[in-house]
Amino acid sequence: MSAGASALAEGEGATGLRAAAGRPIRLGLRQNAAQFTLLVAVNALVGGMLGQERTVLPLLAERTFDLTAYTAVLTYILAFGLAKALTNYLAGAWSDRYGRKPVLVTGWIVAVPVPLLLIWAPSWGWIVAANVLLGISQGLTWSTTVIMKIDLVGPARRGLAMGLNEAAGYLAVAATALATGYLAAAYGLRPEPFFLGIAYAALGLGLSTLVVRETRDHARLEAQTHPAPAGGRNHPLHEHLTHGQVFVQTSFREPALSSASQAGLVNNLNDGLAWGLFPVLFASSGLGIGRIGVLAALYPAVWGLGQLITGALSDRWGRKPFIVGGMLLQAGALATFAMADTFPIWAVAAVALGAGTAMVYPTLLAAIGDVAHPAWRARSVGIYRLWRDGGFAVGALLAGVLADLYGMRTAVWVVAALTAASGVLAAVRMYETHRPAPPPRGAAAGDHPT
User: Fold this and answer.
1) Which residues touch 443 (CB under 8 Å, ≥6 apart)?
2) What is the pTM of this model?
């Protein structure tokens, strides 16, 4: 951002553009610390809603509902992925049209019945229906917290903001997966593990309704200071794009946006495999529920903690090295899962898979924020997340079919190869999207005006 634009962000944000309640609008992590921290907490609750399933549902499919075909077991992930992917797209469009907060609150309302359905489900079809609702809820809530944090922080700390957001969500996934594993070992697969989900939904809805504030005006402020493309309206990334144009640019045409979209899809493809098949793979080797819970928690725990580091470092070193390196590290970790059959080696592979995912997850979102114009950034984030979370559905279907035909380990090998190919494609096609500007003369490191 130029010095003039920085001054405009500070001066206009302080005096020219105000929220509905009369508060001055300013960009920056420090300037919006209270709301940012609140949104981190809300996203932790969003992650906890997902984590309640990670350990228990694959085992529930086998032991309570007597499902033996892997394709049938993974139907709940397929339903979740499709619902979340489509809702991500709608969340971006609705956030631009109606505001961020109404979309966030709606997502929490949809989440309320999910743990109750998981507790009382008399057949597997009810579990699948609960995951449709969970996917819709996750698409609305997680997408909106991402968009709101991007709105608040401005360009200088975007990687750090995404690292904090995703770390909160996936640390909560890990903690809840671990807790539900121990609860299931102590009390059974239902209902006690899902009591956590009831508490998360109540807290998330209450905070989002009563305390979270709208952030759409922050995006409008950044749009005032966003440098226009050299080609003006003839540039493919200018301010005024239709929904269809945003979709085409994000999905296929723009090299960085489309590279991020394909990498996100493959990343969640392998996460769908890990979610649905790994607990069954571990159980087939004789591990108890407690140790399965440890492995199910270890991967998202490293993923969550690692993002606190990788998101901030991508603000200094750029996005592309983390994206390419992270995809290749994930591929190596998946290959290790396919070869191993003992708890210690699986634990090492889980750490490596979490580290690779931590390198990729916040930097892909930050790259989208770098390239997309603030006027249509929420839509671009929604489209990216459409592709990314579509990976859950692709992963569930692919892994289930391959596991049924050729065995679980073959399915893991195939997904490892696809993950490596995605990293190579990003290395060839993607350009670096973030080139940090030097701090203003005389300012201390980190004192960027936005």
Assistant:
1) none
2) 0.76
